[in-house]
Amino acid sequence: MVASAQLAEGTVTCGQVTSSLAPCLGYLTGRGGVTPGCCNGIRSLNGAARSTPDRQQACRCLKNLAGSVRGVNMGNAAGLPGKCGVNVGFPISNSVDCSRFVSKVFY
Predict the structure, then answer these.
(1) Nearest to residue 57, comparing CAs of 17, 28, 9?
(2) What does the alpha-carbon distance between residue 18 and residue 59 come to, in Å, rounded to a whole number?
């Protein structure tokens, strides 16, 4: 029972990705700067994506989110983790193959 509860907590959802990145939308669309709330969301998401399936799911969600939000500057999106001092271990891009990224990098 405890093991299944821990697995459920570790699963990254697209809702979690969206809510973590909501404070970043101003920066991602070129209408603001990177805020502490944005960086906290990036760090939280990076910490939640511990396993390979979680990282691949987070990657897919980021890719879908970038394609569904109007006005996202992909250069800003690609540089956002670095602005927050976080290495997510995969490039943020509309063309990334999320199945290729299997390891987590913490910095």
Answers:
(1) 17
(2) 12
